Structure formats: C-alpha cells, structure tokens
C-alpha cells in the first residue's frame, strides 16, 4: 500500500507540482534565474565575506550543498539512467532550470521572515514564512512536523544504512562498528550546534565536491571526442528519437524529473531552513546564491556522474542493478579497481555532510515546535544518534517509502505557501532589481518599505546605514573625485 501511494504521490503529483509551479514562478519573475545568471557568480564571490559572530552567506550555501550534493548525485543519477536511459539526464536539466526560480523565491522568503534567536544567529524556513506571512499557524505546525519526521529521523537512518553498507562492500568493515563510529563523529559535531555544523560543512563540502568533479572530469576529458555525440544522444533520447532508447520515453521523463527533484531539492522546502541562517544585506541576495546551488548540483555534479556512466562503456540498455553499483563499475571500467574505492569514500563524505544537514533541518523544526527547550534538544540528539546506529544495520525499505510520502507532502505544503506568497516575493525581487539598476553593487533591504509585513526588526532594521558596497557606483565615483 505504501508503494502504491508513494508511486502516485512522488511519481505523478510531485512532478506536476514541481514542474508546473516552477514554470509559473519562472514566468511571473520574468525568468529570474536567467536574468541573474551572470550575477550569481559575483554574489557567490561576495558571499564568502561574513560578519563577525554570524554565519556568512557562503557558509549557508555550503550547508545547503551538504544536503543537495549527496547520495542522489551518485546513486540517484545512476538509478535515473538505469530506468530512464540517457534521456533522463535531459529532464533532470529541465527540472533544475525551473527549480532555480522556486529555490530563489523560497530562500528569499525564508530570509524575509527569519527571526533572531537571541544568540546573534537566525532561524527561518517555510514554517516561519507560513506563520508570519500567511498567518496560518496550523499549516506551519504541519510543515514542521513533516520536516522533523522526514529529515530529522527517517532520512538520517537511510543515509546511515547507505554509507555503512557501501563501506562493507568496499573494505569489508562490519556495519555495526561503522555505524557506531559514524554516530560518535556526528555526536561531536552536533554538540557544537549550528556554528560547528556550518564549519564542518564549510570544510568538507568543497573538498568532496571538487574531488568528485576532478575524477569525473578526468574520465570525461580522457574521452572528450565522444562527448558531443553523447550530448546529442541525451537530447534525442529525451524525446524518444534514439532507436535504442525509444521505449524508455515515459520512464525518461518520470525518472529525470523525480531524481532531479530529489537531487537538488528545489521547491521541497528543505533548503530555506539553512538559507535563513545567513547574515545578508538583502533577502534576494541569498535567493540568488541558493539558485546558483541548484545549478551547481544538477548541471555540474549530476551531469558529471551521468557522463561518467554513459562514456564508460559499462552501461548498456537494460542494465540491472542499483545506482551505486552502476557508478562504481563505470568508474572502475575507465580508471581501474581503485574507482570502486573512490566512489565508496566519496559517498561516505557525501552522506556524512547530508546527515549534518538533515539533523539541522530537524533541529530547526523542533525549535519551531517546542521553542528553546534544552531537554527537547538533547532528547532529539539522542534519538537521532540511536537511529543512525540502528539504521546502519537494518533494511529500511518501508521507512524509505514512508519518508518519500512525507517529503512529497512537505513539497505540497511549501509550494502552496510559495504560490500564496508570490506577490511578496516579487516585491522583494523588484526592490533588489531596482537597486542594482541604480548602480548599487550590494542592495540593502530597508524594512521601512515593507511596513505591512510581519518582519523581525532585530533581523531587518528600518533605514539601515549604507556601506561602501551599497553606495551607487556613480555617486561613489563622484565622492572619490571630490
């Protein structure tokens, strides 16, 4: 019964919601992800600079990439290609393109309605913009409960299962010992709270991402003459024009969209929880940064995995096996047996940072539900660590199906809220665009212009003082000349 419900919700309803509303947001915003594409790189560079005692936009980006760049980029892409053929990659790209606009608005709104937590940090996310933007407390509580159950508990057990069994296959390590070791390492990070989680992600995410991209690029460059034809095959297969994959047209669309959504999480309502923690001058700047993370996740990392598989010569139509095995064997076919070990190590790093991300999402939901209860927080940490130990030794197929259902419900609640708050998102976007058009390099959010919104004045003061980066370029030159 769970499988039937899951297939309907995540295989049909979720696809229509993600693609349909993503397209709607793209049109309403006048293609914000394309208009700001070049700007994304400059905002990404500026995001590295943070304020003392607060998390920078770059750290928030690394934390969100900790969750986005995970098992879905390895096993998920392999599964999509296995069941949908090369055409599934094209539909992953399409999903990411429209998803970039959804990510822009959900992360911008998370910044708009964030709350200062009293320790110099911020909390925010869909529960906060539902409560303070829509005034629907019951809907906000529903989202928080779904987020806590899905990410805080279910997905952490599944991630633990994935990494411990991958290490067992690669090195023969007993799952019970690797599960305990994983729990100990994670516990040390959990104790430090969001700052330590962000610091660890800040270190591990660039390392794991760049190392993985470097190895996959080596495979791609070593067979660069085959890449143009393979890209043509991907596009033709997406529309059923490649004879060898003509029978997979329906599967290509379904698997491409489904795996694309699960890889980049655009529109699901997870990334806004970490996007809200950053100290930024304007909410839309964080929206731009998070839209860039969707691009990086899908167009760079997922594409690297897909080309690795398709160029290796190992993959053939009708391949039977899971996504991890396909990716491991594909890399080994090109670089030798060390490729299997590399995939296992890369997957371990991916999963470790994913669990940190999942844990924080659950903690954020818990604080929304229970306030700053120390007892609730310690109980939550203990349950998560116990579940990681237990999950590393169990087959969690039923839990996985249940988590898929709750995650689809998460996406439904979040996308409905985004559609209802789209006018606020557009107002904030226009304020950002107008300041940039006036020559301001780093626009500043003045809450006085949005006095009708339920904002936290500690997070967004009225009439903020401009800095050198927020003075219009022409005015700055004139002052310099005088």
UniProtKB/TrEMBL annotation:
Family from the record: Belongs to the alanine or glycine:cation symporter (AGCS) (TC 2.A.25) family.
Organism name: Metapseudomonas lalkuanensis
Protein name, UniProt field: Alanine:cation symporter family protein
GO MF terms, alphabetically ordered: amino acid:sodium symporter activity
Coiled-coil stretches: none
Key words, A-Z: Cell inner membrane, Cell membrane, Membrane, Symport, Transmembrane, Transmembrane helix, Transport
Record membrane topology: Multi-pass membrane protein
Subcellular locations according to the entry: Cell inner membrane; Cell membrane
Renumbered residue ranges of the record's region Disordered: 462-482
InterPro entries documented for this protein: Na/Ala_symport (IPR001463)
Taxonomic path: Bacteria, Pseudomonadati, Pseudomonadota, Gammaproteobacteria, Pseudomonadales
PROSITE patterns: NA_ALANINE_SYMP
Pfam families associated with the record: Na_Ala_symp
Chief location of this protein within or outside the cell: membrane
Segments crossing the lipid bilayer: 6-27, 65-84, 134-154, 174-191, 203-224, 230-254, 291-315, 341-361, 373-393, 399-422
One GO CC annotation: plasma membrane
Keyword Lipid metabolism: no
């Amino acid at each position: 019964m769970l499988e039937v419900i899951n297939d309907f919700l995540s295989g049909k309803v979720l696809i229509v919601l993600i693609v349909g509303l993503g397209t709607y947001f793209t049109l309403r915003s006048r293609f914000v992800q394309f208009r700001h594409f070049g700007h994304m790189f400059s905002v990404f560079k500026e995001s590295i600079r943070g304020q003392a005692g607060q998390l920078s936009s770059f750290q928030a980006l690394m934390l969100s990439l900790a969750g986005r760049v995970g098992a879905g980029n390895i096993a998920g892409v392999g599964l999509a290609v296995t069941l949908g053929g090369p055409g599934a990659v094209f539909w992953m790209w399409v999903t990411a393109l429209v998803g970039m606009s959804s990510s822009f608005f959900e992360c911008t709104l998370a910044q708009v309605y964030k709350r200062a937590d009293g320790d110099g940090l911020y909390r925010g996310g869909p529960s906060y913009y539902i409560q303070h933007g829509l005034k629907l407390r019951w809907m906000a509580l529903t989202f928080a409960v779904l987020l806590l159950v899905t990410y805080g508990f279910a997905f952490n057990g599944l991630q633990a299962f994935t990494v411990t069994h991958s290490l067992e296959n690669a090195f023969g390590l007993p799952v019970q010992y690797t599960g305990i070791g994983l729990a100990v390492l994670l516990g040390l990070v959990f104790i430090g709270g969001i700052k330590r989680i962000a610091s660890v992600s800040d270190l591990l995410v660039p390392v794991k991402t760049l190392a993985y991209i470097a190895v996959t690029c080596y495979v791609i460059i070593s067979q660069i003459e085959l890449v143009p034809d393979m890209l043509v095959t991907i596009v033709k297969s997406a529309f059923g024009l490649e004879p060898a994959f003509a029978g997979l047209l329906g599967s290509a669309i379904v698997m491409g969209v489904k795996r694309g959504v699960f890889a980049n999480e655009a529109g699901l309502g997870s990334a806004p929880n970490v996007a809200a923690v950053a100290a930024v001058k304007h909410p839309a700047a964080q929206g731009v940064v998070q839209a860039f993370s969707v691009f990086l996740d899908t167009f760079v990392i997922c594409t690297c995995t897909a080309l690795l598989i398709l160029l290796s010569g190992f993959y053939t139509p009708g391949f039977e096996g899971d996504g991890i095995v396909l990716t491991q064997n594909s890399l080994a076919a090109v670089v030798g047996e060390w490729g299997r070990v590399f995939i296992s190590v890369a997957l371990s790093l991916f999963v470790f940072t994913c669990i940190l991300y999942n844990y924080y999402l659950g903690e954020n939901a818990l604080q929304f539900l229970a306030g700053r209860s120390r007892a609730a927080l310690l109980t939550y940490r203990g349950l998560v660590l116990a579940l990681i130990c237990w999950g590393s030794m169990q087959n969690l197929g039923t839990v996985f199906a249940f988590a898929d259902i709750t995650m689809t419900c998460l996406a439904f609640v979040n996308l409905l809220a985004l559609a209802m708050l789209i006018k606020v998102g557009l107002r904030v976007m226009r304020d950002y665009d107008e300041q940039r058009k006036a020559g301001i390099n780093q626009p500043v959010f003045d809450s006085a212009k949005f006095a009708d919104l339920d904002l936290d004045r500690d997070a967004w003061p009225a009439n903020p003082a401009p800095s050198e980066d927020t003075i219009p370029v022409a005015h700055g030159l004139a002052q310099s000349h005088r």
